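Example record

The entry below shows one chain as it appears in the dataset: sequence first, then structure tokens.
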Amino acid sequence: MSQINQSSLGDSIYAKVSQDLMLGKMRPDQKVTIRGLADELGTGTTPVRDAVQRLLRDGVLVQRSVRDVRVPVLSVAEYLEIIAIRCELEGLAASRAAELVDAKGIARLKRNVALNEAASDSGRWPKAIEYNQQFHFALAEIAGMPTLLDILSRLWLRMGPLIAGYYAQEKVEMVRCHYSIIAACEARDPAAAALAMRTDIESAREGLLRYIETFTLDE
């Protein structure tokens, strides 16, 4: 993480750590220390401590003991609940995007997929994972649904580390269903766009469940 603006320091740290969680730059069960974050960000420990307390209250970090704060590992039940919600909300975003998208929006989605494939092909998995998240959020933006986007951001705060850890470990492609979503948008077919999005989310289910089990086995 790079140096951040010193103004509104606690808010800036909270936003930066949240973004790193969402993009999977922090992995499930990773230990987070106040001193480590402060050194990484070039700040004092007090604003970092405040930001960490907010993240703990939000449930996106967990505290195992006084000195042990970690990125949580989702349980199977938590994961299944979140993907069920994502299927509904992101399916809605894709459906609405198919109704409203213009040529500029289609070009944006195609450019994202091309960048994702290039990153994957060259082994730059952190960038590929970032492009994957951007694609999902772009559909909500194209759909003109800021409230839905805010809800998705909170879900991806929980899911980001899990998704990133799985794809980086397994080197699984992420864009097959994205092509179907774009095709549905070009055809102005909301139902097909929603179905392709749900298929995209569900396609990684078994792999992610196995990935979650690896943490359970290590306990």
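Notes for this example: The radius of gyration is 18 Å. The chain has two domains: 9-70, 76-218.
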